[in-house]
Amino acid sequence: MSDDIALLTIAELASCIRDGDLSPVDITRAYLDRIQRLDDTLHSFNCVIGDTALLEARNAEGAIRAGHWSGPLHGIPIGIKDMIDVMGVPTTAQAVHRRQAIAAQDAGVVVSLRQAGAVILGKQAMSEYAVGGTQLDHAWPPPCNPWDLGKDALSSSSGGAVAVAAGLCGGAIGTETAGSIRAPAAWCGVAGFKPTNGMVSTAGVLPLSPTMDCVGPLAWTVEDCAILLSGMTGAPCREGWRNLDRAIAGLRVGVARSYFENDPVVDPEILAATDLAVDALIDLGAVCVDVVLPDFDALCATAKAISWPEEYRQYREDLAAHPDWLTEVSRSRLQDGQSYSGAEYRAALLRREEIIAELRNLMQDIDLLILPTLKKPAQPRGFEFTDLGKTNLDLTRPFNLTGGPALTMCHGFSDEGLPLSLQIIGRHDEDTLVLRAGHALEQALGVRNRRPQIATF
């Protein structure tokens, strides 16, 4: 019974809570039970605050019984990435020396989520300082991909993606600077959303690259991402899903084939799944046309010339005084930013404005862009240290540079049973349109009835 509860969506749980069929305490206990049974294998949580979560759930239950239901996040248990402050809990950023870095207050996004009634289950694993990839020599074991425990969960917000896919929380809050929500969401088969830059507060979030950092949700469905997002922004929760079921007939969708179709690295199964998604959009009444975007490698180079120097500036004092505080992978990656001159950084900032203008001009005639999230399904853990790891598998970074909304969603499965993932990109501040299109496509494809089967040891 507890597993049945834990595998419901946020929308389904909210309906059960509102109708009195389930209580927030029942739901919180179901997740805590599943965490206890599975997370020694998955390693998705760094810290579980079970007693506090149950207290919050009891408070939510009392308020709802008294007629004060505040929306679809009220009483829903979620996880928080371990670089976002939760009062009274360490914000480790997966760095050993920060294990006692107790947060004095909640981050802005956590304040908003609590006001929406969410229950905080704990802090979720990530890559150290949100840089680099999966670290195999770390004091914490890396999160395991629940679809195949030998596969990589990929990138910085991996703990949240793993926990959502495995049914250990209703949703998760991650951060990204270069695809760190969307990439792990893709390989773990969940929905992940990068909002328009600035939509969600970054106050109380450990900074990495201040002009590129953003906070966003991960959830089993696109609809659940919309519910989470509405709670994260402080808006009434009902607003996040009110218009999600509107038809998308007539939307103009640009297929960014120049980024993936002739790339020999792209897996044929991803190409096939993307074609099926295009067909489904056409069946829903969308108009799909091929578009050519600015050169991918050039956009990635510009993004790095901004984010890497900013990252180095954030941590250069620690790198100089306490190099032993970081693993070799993180230390080397942060030091990469030292190689950029001030002139190169300023030129990249100017080029970013030009790129944003170019994309805005392109999207005068296009409502949305679509393309795969990654070029391959999940790879074996440690792939980054192979020849394949030297190849750029990730198609997310250009849209961190441009700063608009970007959704990753599961749009099929490989013959091996691994999730495949599509990106939907929108204009600045048109986050709701991106989510509405993703929701319609997700329902049309019917891919949300399949969960990973987790073998524990």
What would you note in describing this structure?
This protein has about 450 residues and is an alpha/beta fold. The protein contains 14 helices and eleven strands. The protein has helices at about 1-5, 10-20, 25-40, 50-65, 110-115, 160-165, 180-190, 220-230, 270-285, 295-320, 330-335, 340-360, 395-400, 430-445; strands at about 45-50, 75-80, 120-125, 170-175, 190-195, 215-220, 250-255, 285-290, 370, 405-415, 420-425. It has an eleven-stranded mixed β-sheet with strand order 1-3-2-4-6-5-10-11-9-7-8, with helices on both faces. Helix 9 (about 270-285) links the parallel strand 7 (about 250-255) and strand 8. The mean pLDDT is about 95.
Question: Ends: how far apart?
Answer: 22 Å
Fraction in beta strands? 5-15%
- The strands making up the biggest β-sheet line up spatially as 1-3-2-4-6-5-10-11-9-7-8
What integer value in Å does the Rg equal? 21 Å
Count of helical regions: 14
Task: Count the E strands.
Answer: 11
Mean pLDDT figure: 94
Helix content: 25-40%
User: Outline, from the CA principal axes?
Assistant: globular
Q: Main β-sheet: number of strands, strand sense, barrel status?
A: 11 strands, mixed
Topology order in helix (H) and strand (E) letters: HHHEHEHEHEHEEHEHEHHHEHEEH
The helix-and-strand class reads alpha/beta
* Poorly predicted spans: none
